[in-house]
Specification:
Elements: H1 4-10, H2 24-29, H3 36-47, H4 55-62, H5 69-73, H6 80-95, H7 99-108, H8 111-127, E1 137-138, E2 141-142, H9 154-158, E3 161-162, E4 170-175, H10 178-182, H11 185-197, E5 200-203, H12 213-216, H13 221-235, E6 242-245, H14 248-264, H15 270-278, E7 279-281, H16 282-288, E8 304-308, H17 312-317, H18 322-330, E9 334-337, H19 352-355, H20 357-374, E10 378-381, H21 384-393, E11 401-404, H22 405-410
Parallel strand pairs: 4-5, 4-6, 6-7, 8-9, 8-10, 10-11
Antiparallel strand pairs: 1-2, 3-5
Helix pairs in contact: 3-6, 4-6, 14-15, 16-18
Amino acid sequence: MFPDHLTEDLSNCLKCAMCQPVCPTYRVTRMERHSPRGRVQMVKHYLEGDLSISRGLEDALMSCLMCESCAAACPSGVRLDRVFENMRVKLNENLGNKVSKKALFTALNNPLLMRLGARVARVGLDIIPFPRNLGACIGNIPLGRLPRFNKRLFRHSVGEKVPSKTSRSGTVIYFVGCATDMIYEDVGRAVVNVLTHLGLEVLIPQYQVCCAVPMFLSGARDQALPNIHKNLAILDRNDIDFIVVDCATCGGALKKGIPHLLEDMGLDTDKALRIAKKVRDVSEIVADNIDKLPLEKPRDGNTVSVTYHDPCHLVRSMKVSAPPRTILRSIEGVDFLEMQGADQCCGGAGSFQFEHVDMSAGVTARKKENVRATGASVLATGCPGCRLTLTGNLGEATDPRVVHTIQLVSDRLPRSKR
């Protein structure tokens, strides 16, 4: 059944169109069916029995980036993101998911399959030297710009416990996330390096699994539950200060998405809410303690210009906007340049960029224009998904290098203590 509290939300939609200017997909197509207002009305008509499940309805609802911009802008407080998420469950129940997604979800539920898939992908990309200018693409990303997979899972290479480098000030769990674990180990090492320099003992649970966002945002809610319950059991501890994430999507799931999902399903939320209170993006912890880090001056004496992109789930799900900017403004030798539309979606949204190629390209094009307009040589962000999209689509020689914000901090720490 569709949750009653969300059904009531639908009646609060005033059709005022305040959601349209902030909707990335509507700004690309200018079609009502691709606007939050249009999608809300379709859901409402479905619940009233005037509209049936169809591929057209599926296209309208699944073409939403789930960036939460509409919910943040709604003057009536309609929780559009949760409405659309629950409607996707109905679509999944009636129409199912594509074979490619079913295969992905099976792997996300099975760590052995995940490791095997990553190993095969790594070998394939290493054996076949795709030129960076090759025309073949996956979605909008040329094959030559796809990231390489780690040789080993990051959590396995680092181990379960990393002691602090200074006088111990606390203990945190590091929820690594799939992208850092399998692809961006450079981010993981930077996070551990910075946290341990802050006197934190870092615990990395070896049996953590995917946060399940790809599954439950695609409507496969029942398939997501095993991963959710496993992670909740691992993270629900009284002997830690925080649960740290470097991935905006994982953080948004633990902080808000999973508690909401369990509530909408009528399941117990106590454990999820306890965990949510302890979840922190790594930028929050670093920004609060930036003065405690022994940051060195730039070794070449040069100033680097840096701009910042707000990941959707970080700025809206986790409400984290100021900390990354505080960090960048605190690093000597960094000239921080605020870009226009910094909090607008980059067009990636997980598998969206591979399933809605043209619409994604339209959203990404606006982001690229805003990035290039700053003239920055480095683009920082706090989401591996955004990093994948931006690195893959910013291919000109003058385009900035894309990094995680914490990498810029780690690079300024004394090398002898790494």
